[in-house]
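ok here's 15-cis-phytoene synthase, seq below lol
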Amino acid sequence: MQSLRVGAWADTGVLGVGGDGNGSGSVVVCGGRGRRGGGVIVSVVRGRERGHGVRAQSSVTTEAAGRSYLSAEQKVLEVVAKQAAMVDEQQRRSGISTLQDVRPDLTAGSAAELLDEAYVRCGEVCAEYAKTFYLGTKLMTPERQRAIWAIYVWCRRTDELVDGPNASRITPTALDRWEDRLEDLFRGQPYDMLDAALADTVTKFPVDIQPFRDMVDGMRMDLVKSRYANFDELYLYCYNVAGTVGLMSVPVMGIAPESKATTQSIYNEALALGIANQLTNILRDVGEDARRGRIYLPQDELARFGLSDADIFAGKVTDKWRAFMKDQIKRARMFFVEAEKGVRELDKDSRWPVN
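and the structure came out like this:
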Protein backbone atom coordinates (compact mmCIF):
# COMPACT_ATOMS: atom_id res chain seq x y z
CA MET A 1 0.00 0.00 0.00
CA GLN A 2 1.43 3.28 -1.10
CA SER A 3 0.41 6.88 -0.78
CA LEU A 4 0.37 7.29 -4.55
CA ARG A 5 -1.16 5.24 -7.36
CA VAL A 6 -0.69 4.55 -11.14
CA GLY A 7 1.33 6.23 -13.86
CA ALA A 8 0.42 6.47 -17.50
CA TRP A 9 3.21 5.95 -19.96
CA ALA A 10 3.48 7.55 -23.37
CA ASP A 11 4.88 6.43 -26.73
CA THR A 12 6.75 9.38 -28.07
CA GLY A 13 10.09 10.82 -29.02
CA VAL A 14 12.65 11.53 -26.32
CA LEU A 15 13.81 14.93 -25.21
CA GLY A 16 17.31 15.23 -23.87
CA VAL A 17 17.96 17.96 -21.33
CA GLY A 18 21.62 18.71 -21.03
CA GLY A 19 23.25 19.85 -17.81
CA ASP A 20 23.92 18.49 -14.34
CA GLY A 21 20.34 18.69 -13.00
CA ASN A 22 21.23 21.47 -10.61
CA GLY A 23 21.22 24.55 -12.75
CA SER A 24 21.29 25.46 -16.38
CA GLY A 25 20.70 23.01 -19.19
CA SER A 26 19.98 22.77 -22.90
CA VAL A 27 17.29 20.72 -24.59
CA VAL A 28 17.85 18.48 -27.59
CA VAL A 29 15.58 16.08 -29.42
CA CYS A 30 16.49 12.50 -30.16
CA GLY A 31 14.67 9.35 -31.19
CA GLY A 32 13.28 6.93 -28.70
CA ARG A 33 10.23 5.26 -27.26
CA GLY A 34 8.37 5.22 -23.98
CA ARG A 35 5.78 3.26 -22.07
CA ARG A 36 3.15 3.88 -19.70
CA GLY A 37 1.06 11.31 -1.03
CA GLY A 38 6.45 15.15 5.58
CA GLY A 39 8.21 13.40 8.72
CA VAL A 40 6.77 12.40 11.97
CA ILE A 41 9.92 11.96 13.83
CA VAL A 42 12.10 14.41 11.96
CA SER A 43 9.70 17.31 11.78
CA VAL A 44 7.81 16.60 14.94
CA VAL A 45 11.00 16.11 16.88
CA ARG A 46 12.18 19.50 15.69
CA GLY A 47 8.90 20.92 16.94
CA ARG A 48 9.16 19.06 20.22
CA GLU A 49 12.61 20.48 20.81
CA ARG A 50 11.05 23.90 20.45
CA GLY A 51 8.69 22.99 23.24
CA HIS A 52 5.60 22.20 21.17
CA GLY A 53 4.85 18.76 22.59
CA VAL A 54 6.15 15.39 23.66
CA ARG A 55 9.01 13.91 21.75
CA ALA A 56 7.95 10.69 20.08
CA GLN A 57 11.28 8.93 19.97
CA SER A 58 14.97 9.53 20.56
CA SER A 59 17.42 10.12 17.73
CA VAL A 60 19.83 7.42 18.78
CA THR A 61 18.72 3.93 19.75
CA THR A 62 20.85 1.34 21.55
CA GLU A 63 21.11 -2.18 20.21
CA ALA A 64 21.07 -5.18 22.52
CA ALA A 65 24.84 -5.46 22.14
CA GLY A 66 25.19 -2.00 23.60
CA ARG A 67 26.19 -0.23 20.40
CA SER A 68 24.33 2.91 19.37
CA TYR A 69 23.03 3.49 15.87
CA LEU A 70 21.17 6.24 14.07
CA SER A 71 17.43 5.77 14.09
CA ALA A 72 15.30 6.50 11.05
CA GLU A 73 14.60 10.03 12.25
CA GLN A 74 18.27 10.95 12.41
CA LYS A 75 19.05 9.43 9.01
CA VAL A 76 16.25 11.41 7.42
CA LEU A 77 17.26 14.56 9.28
CA GLU A 78 20.58 14.37 7.46
CA VAL A 79 18.75 14.24 4.15
CA VAL A 80 16.59 17.21 5.17
CA ALA A 81 19.66 19.23 6.12
CA LYS A 82 21.21 18.54 2.71
CA GLN A 83 18.08 19.65 0.85
CA ALA A 84 17.82 22.86 2.88
CA ALA A 85 21.52 23.63 2.42
CA MET A 86 21.19 23.12 -1.31
CA VAL A 87 18.41 25.71 -1.55
CA ASP A 88 20.26 28.19 0.67
CA GLU A 89 23.44 27.79 -1.35
CA GLN A 90 21.69 28.39 -4.64
CA GLN A 91 20.11 31.56 -3.27
CA ARG A 92 23.49 32.82 -2.08
CA ARG A 93 25.20 31.89 -5.34
CA SER A 94 22.64 33.38 -7.70
CA GLY A 95 21.24 36.20 -5.63
CA ILE A 96 17.87 35.26 -7.10
CA SER A 97 15.03 33.82 -5.05
CA THR A 98 14.25 30.20 -5.86
CA LEU A 99 10.60 31.20 -5.70
CA GLN A 100 10.90 32.90 -9.05
CA ASP A 101 9.58 31.19 -12.19
CA VAL A 102 12.55 30.80 -14.52
CA ARG A 103 12.03 29.49 -18.04
CA PRO A 104 14.93 27.85 -19.90
CA ASP A 105 16.31 29.47 -23.03
CA LEU A 106 15.12 27.09 -25.71
CA THR A 107 16.57 28.06 -29.03
CA ALA A 108 15.13 25.15 -30.98
CA GLY A 109 11.44 25.74 -31.57
CA SER A 110 10.65 22.05 -32.10
CA ALA A 111 12.39 21.13 -28.85
CA ALA A 112 10.38 23.72 -26.97
CA GLU A 113 7.17 22.40 -28.50
CA LEU A 114 7.98 18.82 -27.55
CA LEU A 115 8.85 19.87 -24.03
CA ASP A 116 5.57 21.75 -23.74
CA GLU A 117 3.80 18.63 -24.98
CA ALA A 118 5.57 16.58 -22.29
CA TYR A 119 4.32 18.89 -19.57
CA VAL A 120 0.80 18.87 -21.00
CA ARG A 121 0.82 15.07 -20.87
CA CYS A 122 1.95 15.17 -17.24
CA GLY A 123 -0.94 17.52 -16.48
CA GLU A 124 -3.36 15.13 -18.19
CA VAL A 125 -2.13 12.21 -16.11
CA CYS A 126 -2.47 14.29 -12.94
CA ALA A 127 -5.99 15.41 -13.91
CA GLU A 128 -7.04 11.83 -14.67
CA TYR A 129 -5.74 10.12 -11.54
CA ALA A 130 -5.74 12.87 -8.91
CA LYS A 131 -8.55 15.28 -9.76
CA THR A 132 -8.60 17.19 -6.47
CA PHE A 133 -4.83 17.50 -6.40
CA TYR A 134 -4.84 18.68 -10.01
CA LEU A 135 -7.40 21.39 -9.26
CA GLY A 136 -5.18 22.54 -6.39
CA THR A 137 -2.20 22.88 -8.70
CA LYS A 138 -4.22 25.19 -10.95
CA LEU A 139 -3.91 27.82 -8.21
CA MET A 140 -0.14 27.87 -8.70
CA THR A 141 1.78 29.88 -11.27
CA PRO A 142 2.01 28.10 -14.65
CA GLU A 143 5.67 27.19 -14.26
CA ARG A 144 5.12 25.70 -10.82
CA GLN A 145 2.10 23.78 -12.06
CA ARG A 146 4.17 22.13 -14.74
CA ALA A 147 6.97 21.23 -12.36
CA ILE A 148 4.62 19.71 -9.78
CA TRP A 149 2.86 17.69 -12.49
CA ALA A 150 6.21 16.30 -13.62
CA ILE A 151 7.16 15.29 -10.07
CA TYR A 152 3.72 13.78 -9.47
CA VAL A 153 3.87 11.65 -12.61
CA TRP A 154 7.33 10.29 -11.76
CA CYS A 155 6.09 9.35 -8.28
CA ARG A 156 3.02 7.60 -9.71
CA ARG A 157 5.07 5.65 -12.20
CA THR A 158 7.45 4.61 -9.45
CA ASP A 159 4.61 3.47 -7.22
CA GLU A 160 3.02 1.58 -10.09
CA LEU A 161 6.06 -0.68 -10.27
CA VAL A 162 5.14 -2.41 -7.00
CA ASP A 163 1.48 -1.52 -6.60
CA GLY A 164 0.08 -1.87 -10.11
CA PRO A 165 -1.26 -4.72 -12.24
CA ASN A 166 2.25 -5.97 -13.06
CA ALA A 167 3.51 -5.76 -9.48
CA SER A 168 3.81 -9.55 -9.12
CA ARG A 169 6.44 -9.59 -11.87
CA ILE A 170 8.56 -6.74 -10.48
CA THR A 171 11.95 -7.79 -9.13
CA PRO A 172 14.71 -5.93 -7.28
CA THR A 173 16.58 -5.86 -10.59
CA ALA A 174 13.69 -4.01 -12.22
CA LEU A 175 13.86 -1.38 -9.47
CA ASP A 176 17.60 -1.12 -10.00
CA ARG A 177 16.97 -0.39 -13.67
CA TRP A 178 14.37 2.21 -12.75
CA GLU A 179 16.88 3.91 -10.46
CA ASP A 180 19.44 3.86 -13.28
CA ARG A 181 16.88 5.71 -15.42
CA LEU A 182 16.49 8.22 -12.62
CA GLU A 183 20.24 8.83 -12.55
CA ASP A 184 20.22 9.34 -16.32
CA LEU A 185 17.29 11.73 -16.02
CA PHE A 186 19.19 13.93 -13.56
CA ARG A 187 22.16 13.88 -15.93
CA GLY A 188 19.92 15.31 -18.65
CA GLN A 189 19.36 12.01 -20.48
CA PRO A 190 15.66 11.18 -20.08
CA TYR A 191 14.31 7.92 -21.49
CA ASP A 192 10.89 9.13 -22.61
CA MET A 193 8.56 12.10 -22.81
CA LEU A 194 7.43 12.05 -19.18
CA ASP A 195 10.99 11.70 -17.93
CA ALA A 196 11.90 14.70 -20.09
CA ALA A 197 9.46 16.93 -18.23
CA LEU A 198 11.09 16.07 -14.92
CA ALA A 199 14.59 16.42 -16.41
CA ASP A 200 13.64 19.94 -17.42
CA THR A 201 12.12 20.68 -14.01
CA VAL A 202 15.30 19.81 -12.14
CA THR A 203 17.25 22.28 -14.27
CA LYS A 204 14.93 25.11 -13.19
CA PHE A 205 14.40 24.38 -9.50
CA PRO A 206 16.90 23.22 -6.83
CA VAL A 207 15.47 19.70 -6.68
CA ASP A 208 17.95 17.10 -5.41
CA ILE A 209 18.04 13.49 -6.54
CA GLN A 210 18.25 11.94 -3.04
CA PRO A 211 14.51 12.01 -2.22
CA PHE A 212 13.83 10.29 -5.56
CA ARG A 213 16.36 7.58 -4.74
CA ASP A 214 14.77 7.19 -1.32
CA MET A 215 11.34 6.69 -2.88
CA VAL A 216 12.73 3.85 -4.96
CA ASP A 217 14.07 2.40 -1.70
CA GLY A 218 10.50 2.54 -0.38
CA MET A 219 9.42 0.38 -3.30
CA ARG A 220 12.22 -2.04 -2.46
CA MET A 221 10.87 -2.28 1.07
CA ASP A 222 7.49 -3.31 -0.29
CA LEU A 223 9.09 -6.17 -2.18
CA VAL A 224 10.67 -7.72 0.90
CA LYS A 225 8.85 -6.41 3.96
CA SER A 226 5.25 -6.90 5.10
CA ARG A 227 5.61 -6.24 8.84
CA TYR A 228 7.09 -3.37 10.88
CA ALA A 229 8.45 -4.19 14.32
CA ASN A 230 8.15 -0.65 15.70
CA PHE A 231 7.41 2.90 14.72
CA ASP A 232 11.02 3.63 13.82
CA GLU A 233 10.79 1.03 11.05
CA LEU A 234 7.41 2.30 9.94
CA TYR A 235 8.64 5.89 9.98
CA LEU A 236 11.42 5.05 7.52
CA TYR A 237 8.88 3.44 5.20
CA CYS A 238 6.55 6.44 5.47
CA TYR A 239 9.44 8.78 4.74
CA ASN A 240 10.51 6.78 1.70
CA VAL A 241 7.09 6.55 0.06
CA ALA A 242 5.54 9.87 1.13
CA GLY A 243 7.83 12.15 3.14
CA THR A 244 10.12 12.28 0.12
CA VAL A 245 7.38 14.03 -1.84
CA GLY A 246 7.65 17.00 0.50
CA LEU A 247 11.39 17.30 -0.16
CA MET A 248 10.77 17.10 -3.90
CA SER A 249 8.02 19.73 -3.82
CA VAL A 250 9.25 22.51 -1.52
CA PRO A 251 11.84 23.83 -4.00
CA VAL A 252 9.05 24.21 -6.56
CA MET A 253 6.40 25.61 -4.24
CA GLY A 254 8.83 28.13 -2.82
CA ILE A 255 9.20 29.89 0.51
CA ALA A 256 7.54 33.25 1.14
CA PRO A 257 10.03 36.15 0.87
CA GLU A 258 8.74 37.52 4.17
CA SER A 259 9.19 34.20 6.01
CA LYS A 260 11.42 34.33 9.09
CA ALA A 261 11.60 30.52 9.36
CA THR A 262 14.75 28.65 8.43
CA THR A 263 14.76 26.65 5.22
CA GLN A 264 15.44 23.47 7.17
CA SER A 265 12.45 23.98 9.49
CA ILE A 266 10.18 24.36 6.47
CA TYR A 267 11.56 21.17 4.95
CA ASN A 268 10.95 19.44 8.28
CA GLU A 269 7.33 20.54 8.23
CA ALA A 270 6.91 19.42 4.62
CA LEU A 271 8.10 16.01 5.76
CA ALA A 272 5.53 16.10 8.53
CA LEU A 273 2.76 16.53 5.98
CA GLY A 274 3.96 13.58 3.92
CA ILE A 275 4.24 11.34 6.95
CA ALA A 276 0.85 12.45 8.29
CA ASN A 277 -0.80 11.67 4.97
CA GLN A 278 0.86 8.27 4.76
CA LEU A 279 -0.15 7.34 8.32
CA THR A 280 -3.70 8.36 7.45
CA ASN A 281 -3.62 6.16 4.35
CA ILE A 282 -2.34 3.25 6.42
CA LEU A 283 -5.14 3.57 8.96
CA ARG A 284 -7.71 3.90 6.19
CA ASP A 285 -6.44 0.85 4.28
CA VAL A 286 -5.85 -1.66 7.10
CA GLY A 287 -8.41 -4.09 5.70
CA GLU A 288 -7.24 -3.80 2.11
CA ASP A 289 -3.62 -4.30 3.12
CA ALA A 290 -4.48 -7.27 5.34
CA ARG A 291 -6.15 -8.99 2.38
CA ARG A 292 -2.81 -8.69 0.61
CA GLY A 293 -0.98 -10.14 3.62
CA ARG A 294 0.47 -6.80 4.71
CA ILE A 295 0.27 -5.05 8.07
CA TYR A 296 1.63 -1.50 8.14
CA LEU A 297 1.18 -1.09 11.89
CA PRO A 298 3.91 -1.21 14.56
CA GLN A 299 3.99 -4.75 15.93
CA ASP A 300 5.13 -3.66 19.39
CA GLU A 301 2.26 -1.18 19.68
CA LEU A 302 -0.28 -3.78 18.58
CA ALA A 303 1.03 -6.09 21.30
CA ARG A 304 0.80 -3.30 23.87
CA PHE A 305 -2.93 -3.08 23.17
CA GLY A 306 -3.34 -6.86 23.32
CA LEU A 307 -3.65 -7.27 19.56
CA SER A 308 -1.95 -9.61 17.10
CA ASP A 309 -1.76 -10.25 13.37
CA ALA A 310 -4.62 -12.71 13.75
CA ASP A 311 -6.85 -9.92 15.05
CA ILE A 312 -6.01 -7.77 12.02
CA PHE A 313 -6.74 -10.57 9.59
CA ALA A 314 -10.01 -11.39 11.38
CA GLY A 315 -11.14 -7.83 10.82
CA LYS A 316 -13.16 -7.61 14.01
CA VAL A 317 -13.68 -4.22 15.64
CA THR A 318 -13.20 -4.64 19.37
CA ASP A 319 -12.61 -2.31 22.31
CA LYS A 320 -8.91 -3.12 22.07
CA TRP A 321 -8.90 -2.19 18.41
CA ARG A 322 -10.72 1.08 19.06
CA ALA A 323 -8.21 2.02 21.75
CA PHE A 324 -5.31 1.17 19.45
CA MET A 325 -6.75 3.21 16.59
CA LYS A 326 -7.36 6.24 18.81
CA ASP A 327 -3.69 6.16 19.73
CA GLN A 328 -2.62 5.93 16.06
CA ILE A 329 -4.98 8.72 15.01
CA LYS A 330 -3.60 10.95 17.75
CA ARG A 331 -0.10 10.48 16.35
CA ALA A 332 -1.18 11.31 12.80
CA ARG A 333 -2.92 14.46 14.01
CA MET A 334 0.27 15.58 15.75
CA PHE A 335 2.04 15.47 12.42
CA PHE A 336 -0.69 17.42 10.67
CA VAL A 337 -0.43 20.10 13.34
CA GLU A 338 3.32 20.28 12.82
CA ALA A 339 2.90 20.45 9.05
CA GLU A 340 0.42 23.30 9.24
CA LYS A 341 3.10 25.64 10.57
CA GLY A 342 5.11 25.04 7.42
CA VAL A 343 2.22 25.80 5.08
CA ARG A 344 2.12 29.35 6.41
CA GLU A 345 5.76 29.80 5.36
CA LEU A 346 5.24 28.82 1.73
CA ASP A 347 4.96 31.32 -1.07
CA LYS A 348 1.44 32.74 -1.22
CA ASP A 349 0.77 31.11 -4.61
CA SER A 350 1.44 27.68 -3.12
CA ARG A 351 -0.42 27.84 0.19
CA TRP A 352 -3.93 27.17 -1.05
CA PRO A 353 -3.05 24.05 -3.05
CA VAL A 354 -1.39 22.54 0.03
CA ASN A 355 -4.31 23.44 2.28
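fwiw The longest strand covers residues 14-17. kinda neat tbh
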